[in-house]
Amino acid sequence: MEQTAATTKSRLLRRATIFFFAGMAILTLFSNTIVNYSLPRVQVKNFESGMMFRQIQAEGTISAQLKHTVNFGAPRIVDQVKVEVGSPVLVGDIIATLKPTEGVELLEMEMALENAELALAQMKRTPASLSVPAMEKAVKAAQKAIEDAKENLEDAKDAQYQAYVKLIKTERGLEDDVEFAEETLRIEESDLNLVKAKNTTAESLLAAAEAALAALQADPNTEQSAIDLAQATRDTAYEDVYGVDGDPDKPGTRQLLKTAQDNYDAAKDALDTVKASLKAAQQASNEGADDAGVIAAQESLADAEEAYPERLQELSDAKKSDALAVKDRQTAITKAENDLEVQRAKFEQFKSTQGVNEIKADYEGRISKLTLADGATINTAEAVAVIDDAQARYDLRATIPAEQAQTLVIGDRADVSMGNIGWAQAILREIREDKDQPGVVKQLVFDVEGEVALGQQVSINIYKQGRNYDMIVPNAAIRQDASGSFVLAMRQKNGPLGSRYTLERVSVTILESDSTRSAISGTLDWGMPIVTAANKPVEAGSRVLPTK
After folding, report:
1. What is the mean pLDDT of residues 275-284?
2. Are 281 and 275 in contact (CB under 8 A)?
3. Strands 94-98, 88-89: parallel, antiparallel or unpaired by DSSP?
4. Rounded CA separation 314/160 (Å)
């Protein structure tokens, strides 16, 4: 029993082993197929060489090259507009009906005309306002001011001379006073020096006497007679220096010195004072007497001479201004006469429209512009309508961005598309600046031939041949990131279990583009597929599966 159980267990183990390795073999053989179910599916396309064509598309309107304006010369009130923009008209068709006029309107226009005639007559009677006479008086006054200023200057110079003579006399008198003061100072200085010498000697004697007296008094052996003699000598020397008390007639040397010093100082101050007076007189003499009067007279003369050319210029300007005023007056009269003629013509035209209650088309065609409205008053300054002539050649007008217009030249041909109705071809005749968006939009004008009608909306296609390029790819293949433009190229690697496809980033430069394709340059290998679409997000390094 034990052997049978062992045999059964061994058999089961062998079967399990076989199943395991068989399963592993199956998984290995079909692993690539299993993985492929989870990979992004991509559409790829090889780049191609060839020529780029630029297609320019636009919408346009058929219009006539010959247009006729419909005018009405009276400001009548519109009763009912019978057409609209785009309406076809024949000769004699009614464009609009007018409300009947009232006699008061004509009467008001006639009164306004008479008032204008009266205003013109008054304008002719009124002379121009002239300023030349007043300016001529101002020039004469300026000339008189110069003459008066010259006379005043001569009077000021005479007064200055008289004052100068007086200054010279004063200066000479002061020079004599200086000489006298200097002589007085020399005398006082000499006296001062003598008194100083006497005072010095007296003070020396006093000092010696006091010293001798002190020495005798200090010696106990000195006799009283000697001391009394020394004391008398000292008292005499003291009186010589300080004077006798109570006796003003016997002043000491110190008082004499002070008196001499005061006399010297007074003489010096007197000399300084007279010298200052002399210096002031000399300065006044050098600067000139009564210069202020001469300077004021000279300034008055300069002002008068400066004002004279200004008055002359004002006179010249007045002559020009008067000439301009005369010219302006004549211009105003001429304008008033012209306006009167226009007003008279409007009156006559309005008068002639009495009983005319319709505006009719004079040409066959289509209404391309209409300025009339029910109940509105006609503006006589502009056309009430514009009719595109049905017998004239046709234009095709369209607008495109200015950037696209740079590639066009006069004579370029365009295919005209009108759906399934008719055929036409257009030749570019003119490229204009768009009035509403200058510099941004251009208006194209074509000569058109074919089965077209006025006011018809059509589509145009212009094909411009470009250059030949080595690499042209669909626009969908070009991607952008922070580093610039690139494409995702697919590389194939074959193995024992099948092919593996991975993506790599290739930087490219866009050379030219149209609505579907772009010419590029870059390091792409010939025949290397490029991703144009994917069912999941992909990037460089992604493993993918190309669709058939």
Report:
1. 74
2. no
3. unpaired
4. 37
